[in-house]
Design a protein that fits this description.
Blueprint (H helix, E strand, L loop, with lengths): L5 E3 L4 E3 L14 H18 L3 E4 L16 H17 L4 E4 L5 H8 L6 E3 L1 H13 L5 H11 L5 E2 L10 H4 L4 H9 L1
Parallel strand pairs: 3-4, 4-5, 5-6
Antiparallel strand pairs: 1-2
């Protein structure tokens, strides 16, 4: 996106695609991947969480100039989901793939993740509430419902990377209630 991705810490360079305070993990290293899987197991077994909300799932492995949605990334999520399900079969993996529906679908196919946030639907719901016109929302919601494997998408309005729903809705309490109802 034109941002600085290589950062200097005084002794060496490190890669952080989002910002300098968040270095990327190198999942091509077996030690890193194994450690992250062990951490997941700890939280599932010892702490007793029921699942994970996984941020920026598009960006696990890069292949050449392709930063997201690589074959290696898809393979990683298949392996991850197989592993965490072996630890706790009823756990839930929720992926954040900030992209269009056709791409998001690839992350819930073939046992990669249980569900993903549906960004296009979120935008459509907010747009319908803001405009006062839901005429296109019903057809779009039906298309979403029929596009995914049964209920493998998560509805939401905005996330931590976006303006909050109340702000998007002009801080109108009535619109906020309507959006929450959707």
């Amino acid at each position: 996106w034109g941002q600085q991705v290589w950062h200097w810490d005084g002794d060496e360079w490190y890669y952080g695609i989002f910002w300098s305070g968040m270095p990327d993990l190198n999942y091509e290293s077996p030690a890193v991947k194994d450690t992250m899987f062990q951490i997941a197991s700890y939280w599932l077994d010892e702490v007793g969480v029921d699942g994970f909300r996984l941020d920026a799932i598009l960006y696990i492995h890069e292949e050449g100039d392709q930063l997201q949605n690589t074959a290696s990334t898809f393979a990683f999520w298949e392996e991850y989901n197989t592993y965490v399900k072996s630890v706790k079969p009823d756990m839930l993996s929720v992926g954040e793939a900030w992209t269009g529906t056709s791409t998001i679908l690839q992350y819930v196919d073939e046992g990669r993740l249980d569900i993903c946030f549906e960004f296009n639907l979120a935008g459509s719901m907010l747009g319908a509430v803001n405009s006062g016109d839901a005429s296109g929302l019903t057809g779009f919601a039906d298309w979403i419902y029929n596009s995914y494997p049964y209920l493998q998408y998560a509805t939401f309005l905005t996330n931590h990377d976006q303006n909050r729903a109340f702000t998007v809705l002009g801080e109108d309490v009535g619109k906020a209630k309507a959006a929450a109802g959707l």
